[in-house]
Structure formats: structure tokens, C-alpha cells
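Repro:
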Amino acid sequence: MSQLRPAILLLLLLTLVCGVVYPLLTTGLARTLFPDQASGSLLEEDGVARGSALIGQNFTRPDYFWGRPSATSDKPYNPLSSGGSNLAASNPALDKAVAERVAALRAANPQAAAAVPVELVTASASGLDPDISPQAALWQAPRVAASRQLPLSQVETLIDKLTHRPLMPFLGTPTVNVLQLNMALNDL
């Protein structure tokens, strides 16, 4: 009995500190110091949340840029089932999927160069990647410009404007967030 009372008190104290005080403190600090990130990095259009800058969207219309293929199982870009396809580079199923994606992209982008950027036919490790390279965006630019009846130079300028460049080249590669790019196209 002499050990039971301190054990129960310690359990209650640690439950209060670790289960209530610490989560409230970290959530409060996050919402104060990083309000956008703490709220999911949501991107809004006309006051309506259109998605997160951290999770890709499934764009399929010709007047929008398309992101990387999603490897999530039940529906594209489902964050609850994130994960890669786990297909080895030597797996025939991966070869078949890539060949089908290349054929579909070439059919949708007949005016683009023959070489399809690799990230447009392979999923990222999470299957939720929201970004593509500027080269992948530029590869799709003729299709999007023609679909929206915009000058190609205007679409290319928009891609350049929305390209996120690392502070130093060895710290990463330039990327374009597909959702932000498509929302900017809507604003044109």
C-alpha cells in the first residue's frame, strides 16, 4: 500500500503533464509561431480551402498541370494510405505501368517533346508529392496554354514565377507546387 499511493499520484501527474499540458503548450506555440503550417498549409481560393500545399491533388483536365502519379491504393492522393508502390525497378508490373503512363501523357501532350519527364510517370515514396520540377511543368505548358487559349510565354512566365528555388543549389532542386500553379492559372 505504501507504494501504491505514490504510483497513482505519479501516473496522474504524468498523465496531466504529458497528456494535457504538453500537447496544449506545443499546439499553442505552433499556432502562434507557425499559423499556416499548424493549420495544414491550406491554400485558399476565394475564401475556400482548395487543398494543402503539402499533399498532391489529382488533376486530369487538359487545362490544368498534372502532378506525379499517386501510389496510394484506394484513391489518388489519399493521405490515409500513403506509401510507395514497393515495385522494384526490375518488376514487369512497374514497366507496364510506366509504359501506360508515358503513352497517356504523349497522347495528351502531342506538342511536347518526346522525352517525358520521369517524375510524371513514377510515384514518389509517399505517393502524395505535391511538387514537380520546372522541367515537368514546362513540358506540359503547351497543352495547358492551348487548352486555356493563353500565350505559351505567359504560362512559362507563371511557371518561372512560382518555381521554389533552394537557398543554395546543393540544398535541393527547384520545384513547382502543382496546386499553387493551377490556382494561379485560375486567377489569370
